[in-house]
Amino acid sequence: DAGVTQSPTHLIKTRGQHVTLRCSPISGHKSVSWYQQVLGQGPQFIFQYYEKEERGRGNFPDRFSARQFPNYSSELNVNALLLGDSALYLCASSYLAGADTQYFGPGTRLTVL
Amino acid sequence: AQSVSQHNHHVILSEAASLELGCNYSYGGTVNLFWYVQYPGQHLQLLLKYFSGDPLVKGIKGFEAEFIKSKFSFNLRKPSVQWSDTAEYFCAVFSGTYKYIFGTGTRLKVLA
Predict the structure, then answer these.
(1) What is the largest CA-CA distance in chain B?
(2) What's the gap between Cα B26 and its chain centre?
(3) How far apart are CA A95 and CA B57, in angstroms?
(4) How high does pLDDT run on average in chain B?
(5) With a CB-CB cutoff of 8 Å, which residues 19-78 of chain A face chain B?
(6) pLDDT, tens digit (0-9, with 9 covering 90-100), for A14-34
(7) Quick check: B100 and A42 CB within 8 A?
(8) Most CB atoms closer than 10 Å: which of A23, A57, B24, B55?
Protein backbone atom coordinates (compact mmCIF):
# COMPACT_ATOMS: atom_id res chain seq x y z
CA ASP A 1 0.00 0.00 0.00
CA ALA A 2 1.19 3.50 -0.78
CA GLY A 3 2.10 5.67 2.15
CA VAL A 4 1.37 9.34 2.61
CA THR A 5 2.52 11.33 -0.39
CA GLN A 6 3.33 15.01 -0.54
CA SER A 7 4.05 17.39 -3.38
CA PRO A 8 6.17 19.13 -4.28
CA THR A 9 9.31 17.75 -2.67
CA HIS A 10 11.12 21.06 -2.68
CA LEU A 11 9.96 24.61 -3.25
CA ILE A 12 11.68 27.97 -3.40
CA LYS A 13 9.65 31.14 -3.00
CA THR A 14 10.34 34.79 -2.27
CA ARG A 15 8.97 36.87 0.54
CA GLY A 16 5.38 37.99 0.06
CA GLN A 17 4.47 35.15 -2.27
CA HIS A 18 1.86 32.50 -1.69
CA VAL A 19 2.42 28.73 -1.60
CA THR A 20 0.20 25.65 -1.79
CA LEU A 21 1.38 22.30 -0.52
CA ARG A 22 -0.45 19.07 -1.22
CA CYS A 23 -0.92 15.81 0.63
CA SER A 24 -2.55 12.50 -0.19
CA PRO A 25 -3.31 10.28 2.81
CA ILE A 26 -3.01 6.54 3.09
CA SER A 27 -6.01 4.87 1.48
CA GLY A 28 -8.79 4.55 4.06
CA HIS A 29 -7.48 7.29 6.31
CA LYS A 30 -9.95 10.10 6.87
CA SER A 31 -7.82 12.53 8.83
CA VAL A 32 -4.91 14.68 7.73
CA SER A 33 -2.68 16.78 9.94
CA TRP A 34 -0.07 19.36 8.97
CA TYR A 35 3.14 20.15 10.81
CA GLN A 36 5.97 22.61 10.40
CA GLN A 37 9.45 21.38 11.29
CA VAL A 38 12.23 23.92 11.55
CA LEU A 39 15.80 22.60 11.57
CA GLY A 40 16.75 21.32 15.00
CA GLN A 41 13.19 21.34 16.32
CA GLY A 42 10.39 18.84 16.57
CA PRO A 43 7.32 19.05 14.36
CA GLN A 44 4.96 21.88 15.29
CA PHE A 45 1.26 21.15 14.87
CA ILE A 46 -0.55 23.45 12.42
CA PHE A 47 -3.92 21.83 11.61
CA GLN A 48 -5.87 18.61 11.85
CA TYR A 49 -8.73 17.89 9.45
CA TYR A 50 -11.22 15.06 9.63
CA GLU A 51 -14.01 14.46 7.15
CA LYS A 52 -13.31 17.86 5.57
CA GLU A 53 -13.74 19.74 8.85
CA GLU A 54 -11.03 21.43 10.88
CA ARG A 55 -10.69 19.59 14.18
CA GLY A 56 -7.64 21.26 15.65
CA ARG A 57 -5.46 24.27 15.08
CA GLY A 58 -2.02 25.14 16.40
CA ASN A 59 -0.60 28.56 17.20
CA PHE A 60 -0.02 29.76 13.68
CA PRO A 61 -1.12 33.07 12.13
CA ASP A 62 -4.10 33.40 9.82
CA ARG A 63 -1.70 33.42 6.88
CA PHE A 64 -1.81 29.65 7.24
CA SER A 65 -4.93 27.89 6.03
CA ALA A 66 -5.84 24.42 4.88
CA ARG A 67 -8.65 22.38 3.50
CA GLN A 68 -9.53 18.74 2.98
CA PHE A 69 -11.23 17.44 -0.11
CA PRO A 70 -13.92 14.74 -0.50
CA ASN A 71 -11.22 12.21 -1.40
CA TYR A 72 -9.50 13.11 1.94
CA SER A 73 -6.49 14.72 0.28
CA SER A 74 -5.50 18.08 1.66
CA GLU A 75 -3.87 21.38 0.80
CA LEU A 76 -1.94 23.71 3.05
CA ASN A 77 -1.82 27.33 1.92
CA VAL A 78 0.52 29.96 3.24
CA ASN A 79 0.05 33.61 2.21
CA ALA A 80 2.46 36.53 2.42
CA LEU A 81 5.48 34.30 2.98
CA LEU A 82 8.11 35.37 5.48
CA LEU A 83 11.70 34.22 5.74
CA GLY A 84 10.73 32.44 8.96
CA ASP A 85 8.32 30.20 7.06
CA SER A 86 11.29 28.32 5.64
CA ALA A 87 10.90 24.80 7.02
CA LEU A 88 10.00 21.22 6.28
CA TYR A 89 6.23 20.86 6.10
CA LEU A 90 5.02 17.44 7.11
CA CYS A 91 1.68 15.88 6.41
CA ALA A 92 0.42 12.97 8.48
CA SER A 93 -2.67 10.88 8.00
CA SER A 94 -4.66 8.79 10.44
CA TYR A 95 -7.84 6.77 10.28
CA LEU A 96 -9.58 8.84 12.92
CA ALA A 97 -9.22 12.37 14.25
CA GLY A 98 -7.71 13.09 17.61
CA ALA A 99 -5.00 10.95 19.12
CA ASP A 100 -4.95 8.23 16.49
CA THR A 101 -1.49 7.15 15.30
CA GLN A 102 -0.05 9.55 12.77
CA TYR A 103 1.52 8.19 9.58
CA PHE A 104 3.91 10.76 8.23
CA GLY A 105 4.85 11.63 4.69
CA PRO A 106 8.30 12.65 3.46
CA GLY A 107 7.58 16.37 3.73
CA THR A 108 7.91 19.40 1.48
CA ARG A 109 11.03 21.49 1.98
CA LEU A 110 10.06 25.18 1.60
CA THR A 111 12.75 27.81 1.26
CA VAL A 112 11.73 31.46 1.37
CA LEU A 113 14.28 33.92 0.00
CA ALA B 1 1.35 26.86 27.50
CA GLN B 2 1.62 23.14 27.02
CA SER B 3 5.11 21.88 26.29
CA VAL B 4 7.14 18.72 25.94
CA SER B 5 10.75 18.63 27.11
CA GLN B 6 13.34 16.15 25.98
CA HIS B 7 16.39 16.57 28.13
CA ASN B 8 19.00 14.91 25.95
CA HIS B 9 19.57 16.43 22.54
CA HIS B 10 22.41 14.14 21.50
CA VAL B 11 23.24 10.73 22.93
CA ILE B 12 26.11 8.48 21.88
CA LEU B 13 26.20 4.89 23.07
CA SER B 14 28.10 1.75 22.26
CA GLU B 15 26.21 -1.32 21.12
CA ALA B 16 24.73 -3.35 24.00
CA ALA B 17 24.57 -0.30 26.26
CA SER B 18 21.28 0.53 27.94
CA LEU B 19 19.26 3.50 26.80
CA GLU B 20 16.97 5.87 28.63
CA LEU B 21 15.65 9.02 26.99
CA GLY B 22 13.80 11.49 29.15
CA CYS B 23 10.50 13.16 28.30
CA ASN B 24 8.47 15.49 30.47
CA TYR B 25 5.27 17.31 29.58
CA SER B 26 3.46 20.24 31.14
CA TYR B 27 -0.23 19.50 30.55
CA GLY B 28 -2.27 18.68 33.66
CA GLY B 29 -5.27 17.04 32.06
CA THR B 30 -5.75 13.70 30.37
CA VAL B 31 -3.07 13.07 27.78
CA ASN B 32 -2.12 10.49 25.25
CA LEU B 33 1.62 9.93 24.99
CA PHE B 34 3.75 8.81 22.09
CA TRP B 35 7.30 8.16 21.03
CA TYR B 36 8.03 8.53 17.34
CA VAL B 37 11.30 7.64 15.64
CA GLN B 38 12.93 8.80 12.44
CA TYR B 39 15.60 6.49 11.07
CA PRO B 40 18.09 7.97 8.61
CA GLY B 41 16.42 8.53 5.26
CA GLN B 42 13.02 7.42 6.48
CA HIS B 43 9.79 9.07 7.57
CA LEU B 44 8.72 9.62 11.15
CA GLN B 45 7.03 6.50 12.47
CA LEU B 46 5.37 5.39 15.67
CA LEU B 47 7.53 3.55 18.19
CA LEU B 48 4.96 3.17 20.95
CA LYS B 49 2.01 4.90 22.59
CA TYR B 50 0.20 5.14 25.90
CA PHE B 51 -3.52 5.86 26.17
CA SER B 52 -4.54 4.23 29.47
CA GLY B 53 -4.04 1.13 31.60
CA ASP B 54 -0.65 -0.40 32.35
CA PRO B 55 1.78 2.53 32.58
CA LEU B 56 4.58 0.38 31.18
CA VAL B 57 4.07 0.11 27.43
CA LYS B 58 6.05 -1.94 24.98
CA GLY B 59 6.74 -0.91 21.42
CA ILE B 60 8.54 -2.18 18.39
CA LYS B 61 12.16 -3.33 18.33
CA GLY B 62 12.38 -3.96 22.08
CA PHE B 63 11.61 -0.42 23.18
CA GLU B 64 9.45 0.34 26.19
CA ALA B 65 8.29 3.47 27.98
CA GLU B 66 6.94 4.15 31.44
CA PHE B 67 4.25 6.72 32.17
CA ILE B 68 4.67 8.27 35.61
CA LYS B 69 1.73 10.58 36.11
CA SER B 70 3.05 12.20 39.29
CA LYS B 71 6.23 13.20 37.48
CA PHE B 72 4.56 14.13 34.18
CA SER B 73 7.11 11.86 32.53
CA PHE B 74 7.14 9.28 29.76
CA ASN B 75 10.72 8.04 29.48
CA LEU B 76 11.83 5.70 26.73
CA ARG B 77 14.05 2.71 27.53
CA LYS B 78 15.83 -0.13 25.82
CA PRO B 79 18.00 -2.60 27.73
CA SER B 80 20.53 -3.16 24.95
CA VAL B 81 20.82 -0.88 21.92
CA GLN B 82 21.93 -1.94 18.46
CA TRP B 83 23.67 -0.01 15.71
CA SER B 84 20.35 0.00 13.82
CA ASP B 85 18.77 2.05 16.63
CA THR B 86 20.68 5.09 15.39
CA ALA B 87 17.89 7.59 14.75
CA GLU B 88 16.15 10.68 16.02
CA TYR B 89 13.53 10.08 18.71
CA PHE B 90 10.61 12.40 19.41
CA CYS B 91 8.31 12.36 22.39
CA ALA B 92 4.80 13.69 21.71
CA VAL B 93 1.70 14.49 23.71
CA PHE B 94 -1.85 14.71 22.45
CA SER B 95 -4.14 16.75 24.65
CA GLY B 96 -7.86 17.26 24.75
CA THR B 97 -7.67 20.46 22.75
CA TYR B 98 -6.96 18.40 19.66
CA LYS B 99 -3.33 19.30 19.54
CA TYR B 100 -0.23 17.26 19.11
CA ILE B 101 2.85 18.69 20.80
CA PHE B 102 6.24 17.25 19.96
CA GLY B 103 9.49 17.59 21.85
CA THR B 104 12.63 18.87 20.16
CA GLY B 105 13.96 15.38 19.60
CA THR B 106 16.98 13.36 20.71
CA ARG B 107 19.57 12.23 18.20
CA LEU B 108 20.88 8.82 19.18
CA LYS B 109 24.06 7.48 17.67
CA VAL B 110 25.02 3.90 18.42
CA LEU B 111 28.62 2.96 17.78
CA ALA B 112 29.25 -0.51 16.43
Answers:
(1) 43
(2) 15
(3) 22
(4) 93
(5) 33, 35, 40-45, 48, 55-56, 58
(6) 999 999 999 999 999 999 999
(7) no
(8) A23
